[in-house]
Amino acid sequence: MPEDWTTDRDRCREAGIPDEVAFATKPELAIAMLEQARSAQVPFAWILADAGYGRDPQLRAWCHRQSAPYVFGVPVDLPLDGPPGKPRQPAVTRADDLLHYAKTRDQWERRSCGDGAKGERLYDWTAFAVHVKDEDPADTFTHWLVLRRSLHPNRRAKDGELHREVAYFLVHAPAGITVSQIIARVGGRWQIEEDNEINKQLVGLAQYQVRKWTPWHRHVTACMLASAFLAVQRAQIPEPAPAPGEGADLGKDHSPGVSEVAG
Fold it and tell me: Residue 261's pLDDT is what?
């Protein structure tokens, strides 16, 4: 609910919105939904979100308190506690400082993070163990900053040159997690977006014309139930065996290497 709605109680009452509904940011709504899921004992293994959520320290803190693994997209200025720097080596105070070390150590791995509309989604990947400023992971957990780089120049920088786009992901995971597991979790974000689009087309998630709070919730709830039913049915259909030699070379699996830059 936008804040200009929640501060106009007459408007809210006319639309049937309960008085107890107050303005909340998207990360605050995410925390409330996660708490409800925990209370209802809904099983989930990982929490995945883009940088709009990953930039929020309160959401990350909730996950740390709950010992909940996550993969969050994060902005380039995510504060880090790294070493102070050396000659020709910058201090590490934010996420994009690690791009220098990623380039100099040149330990990128080309791997797939899942199937896309045009085949395997291949990127170059590297990872650093990091300390997020003023944030401790859960016991036995570690923070990793994962850098994902496009294979070809696809982003125009301020200097006018095309560069390979680099995305940053903060991973909060139990010790011993492997590179393949991390990349698979990062790739899970695409599945969420694809599910949203499929639900709009298949069960009419976005096809509503309502003026009241209750009818909107009825429509969305019915669509979610239909989507869940279809997901269960699809999961029961056996997948065809892959053809010999099919699929991208994912490389040998291993735990991410710990860099001196981790601090």
Answer: 47
What is the three-class DSSP state of 11?
helix
What residues does 115 pair with on adjacent strands?
120
Instruction: Please return the burial class of 256, using the count of CB atoms within 10 Å of its CB with bins 0-12, 13-18 and 19+.
Output: buried
| E strand segments, 81-231 | 109-116, 119-129, 141-149, 155-156, 162-163, 166-174
The residue with tokens 């560069």 is 163
161-180 residue pLDDT tens: 888 999 999 999 998 898 88
**Three-class DSSP category at 45:** coil
Buried residues in 84-101 as b, exposed as e (16+ CB within 10 A):
eeeeeebebbbbbbbbeb
Which residue ranges make up each domain of the chain? 1-44, 45-235+252-262
Q: Tell me the C-alpha distance between 129 and 145, whole Å.
A: 6
